[in-house]
């Protein structure tokens, strides 16, 4: 069975934007799309799906939906039908679940290529305001999680034409990768390279200048001394090795490395304004402290102007 591009849907504007983004991603990856709604019962006269807050609750109430019954399934079917109309080449499935939103979404992500979730848009300012469910799922799910803001559109992912207008007919903006060179995991790098290859666009790698030279080599390595590693699945590769190997695997992806001084989160947020996708990592931690998002990833999630993919890695 192929993996799916899975998206959480609750009827809110932010989840509808996530569904539209996920449909485009499913088309790029030639994978099925799965719409998932999680109904979380509460001890109130009117149940609600709290995945993304009051706007979703109001939307369900306006349709007379008070439980995970026929009304909820109808809204989910209507959303799926709309995706089929707009993206006839994408296979669309749907699933209605009942339980805790965070737990059910994590389970739904296990067999997914990635999980997309909506995030509140900032009023008047480009960026994300990530709700508690989105943050929890991004911090605990071992599949990639993509957060999409409410006002995200296909045009935002593309470069402007000579007249200054952007549309789906112009090339994609770059994919931006925020890389912690102390932990250059191949899973994170591969996701970013694949995303750039699917979009036929540049990969901008932003990293710490203290660890890498702009040429993608260690501070004391020349082009002739970078080893040629065909396997990038191990943990022992240094940052230069891993990048060099993936450049060979994805020869059509142009890689631009940047190592600006200052705070990494600030540079990634700035780069997101000209990006189709921002990719950041989350280390999988098995400790009494539990899973959590690092400060850079957390800041990027809250302030990026483009969809953000959080990729768990060792």
Helix content: 25-40%
Give the number of DSSP strands.
11
Share in β-strands: 15-25%
Rg over C-alpha atoms, rounded to the nearest angstrom: 20 Å
Indicate the mean pLDDT: 79
Walkthrough of the structure:
This is Universal stress protein. Residues 151-160 have a biased composition (Basic and acidic residues). Belongs to the universal stress protein A family. The protein is an alpha/beta fold. The chain has nine helices and eleven strands. The protein has helices at 13-29, 54-62, 70-86, 101-109, 132-140, 186-199, 239-249, 264-272, 295-303, and strands spanning 4-8, 33-39, 92-98, 112-121, 128-129, 145-149, 175-178, 203-206, 255-258, 277-283, 308-313. Strands 1, 2, 3, 4, 5, 6, 7, 8, 9, 10 and 11 form an eleven-stranded mixed beta sheet that branches. Strand 7 (175-178), helix 6 and strand 8 form a beta-alpha-beta unit. Helix 4 (101-109) packs parallel to helix 5 and helix 8 (264-272) packs parallel to helix 9. The longest helix has 17 residues, at 13-29. Mean pLDDT is 79; it is low at 45-52, 57-67, 122-127 and 211-237.
């Amino acid at each position: 069975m192929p993996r799916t591009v899975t998206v959480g849907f609750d009827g809110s504007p932010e989840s509808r934007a996530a569904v539209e983004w996920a449909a485009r991603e499913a088309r790029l990856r030639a994978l099925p799309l799965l719409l998932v709604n999680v109904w979380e019962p509460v001890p109130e006269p009117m149940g609600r799906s709290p995945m993304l807050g009051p706007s979703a609750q109001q939307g369900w109430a306006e349709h007379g939906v008070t439980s995970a019954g026929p009304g909820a399934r109808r809204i989910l079917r209507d959303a799926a039908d709309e995706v089929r109309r707009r993206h006839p080449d994408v296979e669309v499935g749907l699933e209605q679940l009942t339980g805790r939103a965070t737990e059910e979404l994590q389970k739904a992500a296990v067999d997914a290529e990635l999980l997309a979730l909506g995030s509140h848009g900032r009023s008047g300012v480009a960026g994300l305001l990530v709700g508690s469910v989105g943050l929890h799922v991004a911090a605990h799910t071992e599949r990639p999680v993509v957060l999409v803001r409410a006002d995200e559109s296909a045009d935002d992912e593309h470069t402007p034409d000579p007249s200054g207008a952007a549309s789906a007919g112009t090339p994609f903006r770059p994919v931006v990768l925020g890389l912690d060179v102390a932990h250059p995991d191949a899973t994170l790098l591969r996701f970013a390279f694949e995303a750039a290859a699917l979009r036929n666009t540049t990969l901008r790698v932003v990293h710490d200048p203290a660890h890498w030279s702009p040429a993608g080599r260690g501070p004391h390595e020349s082009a002739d001394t970078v080893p040629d590693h065909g396997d990038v699945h191990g943990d022992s590769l240094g940052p230069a090795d891993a990048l060099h190997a993936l450049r060979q695997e994805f020869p059509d992806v142009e890689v631009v490395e940047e190592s600006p001084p200052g705070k990494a989160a600030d540079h990634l947020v700035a780069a997101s304004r000209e990006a189709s996708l921002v990719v950041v990592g989350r280390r999988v931690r098995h400790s009494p402290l539990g899973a959590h998002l690092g400060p850079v990833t957390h800041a990027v999630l809250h302030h990026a102007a483009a969809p953000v993919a959080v990729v768990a890695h060792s």
